[in-house]
TrEMBL record:
Provenance organism: Desulfosporosinus youngiae DSM 17734
Protein name: RNA methyltransferase, RsmD family
GO molecular function: methyltransferase activity; nucleic acid binding
Keyword Transferase tagged: yes
Pfam families: Cons_hypoth95
CDD domains tied to this protein: AdoMet_MTases
Alphabetized NCBIfam families for the sequence: 16S rRNA (guanine(966)-N(2))-methyltransferase RsmD
Any single GO BP term: rRNA methylation
PROSITE patterns: N6_MTASE (PS00092)
InterPro entries per record: DNA_methylase_N6_adenine_CS (IPR002052), RNA_MeTrfase_RsmD (IPR004398), SAM-dependent_MTases_sf (IPR029063)
UniProtKB keywords: Methyltransferase, Transferase
Gene3D superfamilies xref list: Vaccinia Virus protein VP39 (3.40.50.150)
Amino acid sequence: MRIIAGEMRGRQLKAVEGMHTRPTSDKVKGAIFNVLGDKVLDSRVLDLFAGTGNLAIEALSRGSCEAVLVEKSHNAFQVIQKNLQQLGVNQKSRLFLMDAFQYIHRYPNEVFDLIFLDPPYRQELIQKVLQTLKEYSYLTPDGVIVAETAKDEELTGDIYPFEIRKTGEYGDTKVWYLQRMDV
């Protein structure tokens, strides 16, 4: 696993041992950032199921000004800490060892340009996060939520005030791009 573009291009990231963490592949990550384009520049990024920090660190490499990473696994948290230190981006990042939902409720006044959601598949966690985010103004008016699911999963139910703007399928992964409806 490596950073694929930006000032840290080619640098390696440490991975979490075992099968509990599923890092975003370089192919999927490249596709995500191609879709996001210049939205990454000077953005504030929230990575709610950070895993290895792969997506947030890629955003920092591509010009994001700040990343907040939230991870509830202690092992994954330690790997993220090492990755942030090794790449010298501690000053541009904040790392929290807690559940995504705890973070949202504990920091209700945060606002982000990009929100990455890559939770464990087939647990309907994205739907639950979207329902929780509705209660707050976490996303800037033109911000984007990037959510990853298994290819055969669907986002069902009421996701208002968000709407799906685009999807992409890459192997066994489906990526959803959501924005506020009023944009």
